[in-house]
Amino acid sequence: MSETDKDVPNLEFSEKYTDEHARAYFHKHMDGFWRNLSNKREISIARKALKLAGHPRTVLDLPSGTGRFWSMLAEDEGRKLYAADYNQSMLNVALEERPREITRRIETFQASAFDIPKPDNFVECIFSMRLLHHIGEREDRMKMLREFHRVTSDTVVVSLWVDGNYKARKRARLEQHRRHKKYQNRFVQPRESIEAEMREAGFEIVDHVDFLKYYAMWRIYVLRKK
Ligand SMILES: C[S@@+](CC[C@H](N)C(=O)[O-])C[C@H]1O[C@@H](n2cnc3c(N)ncnc32)[C@H](O)[C@@H]1O
User: Fold this and answer.
1) What does the alpha-carbon distance between residue 84 and residue 164 come to, in Å, rounded to a whole number?
2) 212 alpha carbon to ligand 1 midpoint, in Å?
3) pLDDT at 1
4) pLDDT grade, residue 205 (50/70/90)?
5) How far apart are CA 48 and CA 37, in angstroms?
6) Which residue out of 28, 39, 131, 161 has the highest number of ligand 1 atoms within 8 Å of its CB and is therefore the one to mutate?
7) Which residues make Cβ contacts (< 8 Å) with residue 167, sequence separation at least 6?
């Protein structure tokens, strides 16, 4: 990915994952009872989503961050695994901290989700946790979904924040009082419009799995290339 390429969106949030932040991110999800429980639930719904995707034989984890899902992705011993992230610091922490028997099975590379340096139909499944909710502009979301459509040969498993639940309503109320805030880096998507974008990018929606139905904003969609 070239920084001078005007077609590659340059998101402000993408720049915050320094070495220090990467290490903090690694520890964050294991920190305390509730975070731990939430991490386990997220991994469990992601496992279910992969099953709905038909147990893909090749998976690209993008963005892999510090490899939070690697052990789960590697549960299928025959699966070929790739992992990429925009920030090398995140990949470095993942490679240092995750068990060697897992990391040696994974081929990592630095990449923007908007411009993946791999050929068409490269993997059976792109697995993308906690990136789409950072993308506020429709144009950018479409660019990413279309790039996923190019690089996957079959499915995409993608998580984001959706409306239609208690937490989203609460957040909307809070945001009304925060109108003056200039910089926002996480967004709740109306289900109807994000599903329309997914279809427009060339996917059919196979299914979805909610973190906690009617309460939490996190949802994982399973998409299949049409
Ligand atoms: C919230 S973390 C999620 C990481 C991992 N999927 C997880 O759930 O633990 C967001 C990740 O997105 C990466 N990132 C930011 N902008 C990106 C981009 N344009 N393309 C690919 N990765 C990006 C960051 O470096 C960071 O690792």
Assistant:
1) 31
2) 23
3) 41
4) very high
5) 17
6) 131
7) 215, 216, 217
Q: Using an 8 Å Cβ cutoff, are 216 and 165 in contact? A: yes
**Angle formed by the axes of helices 191-200 and 138-151, to 10°?**
50
The Cα-based distances of 77 to 57, 73, 197 in angstroms read 10, 9, 34
Tell me if 112 CB under 6 Å of ligand 1: yes
Rounded distance, CA 35 to CA 26, Å? 12
pLDDT digits 0-9 by tens, 57-116 = 999 999 999 999 999 999 999 999 999 999 999 999 999 999 999 999 999 999 999 999
Could you give the CA distance from residue 118 to residue 20 in angstroms, rounded to a whole number? 29
Domains of the chain, start order: 12-225 (3.40.50.150)
Instruction: Give dist(CA 123, CA 79) in Å, integer.
Output: 11
In the predicted model, is pLDDT for residue 125 greater than 80? yes
- CA–CA distance from 44 to each of 9, 203, 224 (Å)? 31, 24, 21
CA distance 43 to 177: 33
pTM (2 d.p.):
0.95
Q: Per the structure block, which two tokens stand in for 94?
A: 């993942």
Q: Is the CB of 128 under 6 A from ligand 1?
A: no
